[in-house]
Amino acid sequence: MTPIKNVVLAGTSGAVAPAILEQLVKSGQFNVTAFTRDPSKGSYPDSVKVVKADYSSVEALTEALKGQDAVVSSLHAAATDEQFRLAEASIAAGVKRFLPSEFGVDTINPKSRALPVFGGKVKLQEYLKKKAAEGAITYTLVFTGSFFDWALGVGFIINTKERKVELYDGGENQFSATTVAGVGKAIVGVLTHYEETKNRAVAIQEALVSQKQLLKIAQKITNTTDDQWEIKVTETAPLEEAAYEELKKESPNALLWIYNLIKRAVFAEGYGGRFDKVDNELLGLKEFTDDDLEALVAKYAQ
Fold this sequence. Notes:
Blueprint: E1 6-10, H1 17-27, E2 31-36, E3 49-52, H2 58-65, E4 70-73, H3 80-93, E5 97-99, H4 110-113, H5 119-133, E6 138-143, E7 146-147, H6 148-154, E8 164-168, E9 175-178, H7 180-191, E10 200-203, E11 207-209, H8 211-222, E12 230-234, H9 236-247, H10 254-267, H11 280-283, H12 290-299
Parallel strand pairs: 1-2, 1-4, 2-3, 4-5, 5-6, 6-10, 7-9, 8-12
Antiparallel strand pairs: 9-11
């Protein structure tokens, strides 16, 4: 029997949080509490307890976390201070398991780990590792690759609606990707496999694909050819260099340097965007068939 029964989801907006909440509730295995800055915004299932969270106060968070077994953080990765307070409060409240807001590339990978865009994640990892060694809490890092459906919807991987694609490093490097629902399912898997996921990273993927592969699928679905698409090739090494140059400025453009480094991490070879070993079987997540992959691309090609 899992020692996790009472679960807090901290942060309920954004690309992935609603899907995590849906899967936690759908599993029927947890008493779910949602921490949100403004309970009046959004709608929640009747079974979910909604709590207004004060992320500026460790004391307030500690009080709100009493009696909880696990905390899943889906706070924005840039909210480093808030995540640290949440982790500190979780320890003070006696929470058993903490899942920080990872949900992306493998940030244990030395190359991605060195990128400043992941500095907050790395700092929190080190803190949790230290506290786990002291027996204060356990943790799990969940690496998901790109949010597959979200990335297709916003045109990050390939813009099927406007028939545009920017092929990074030629578009041939494979990267791991998971739908937001898949992320939610994997989190349920982590929480129901307490010992197997204790104090380590898990990696999942529903697809291991390349941009060129997705372009070929999209062209098949839309009955188009290269000359009907706007295709651009961009190398990611200069993007990384440009990001560091931007960071030297007094007021760097966050969108520029952050997205440049994320593109480097996701699409460059050896930067942690591709998972060679995954925990799908343990966590109950299936990889897409060719038909599944085609159906997902078709959803966003209309």
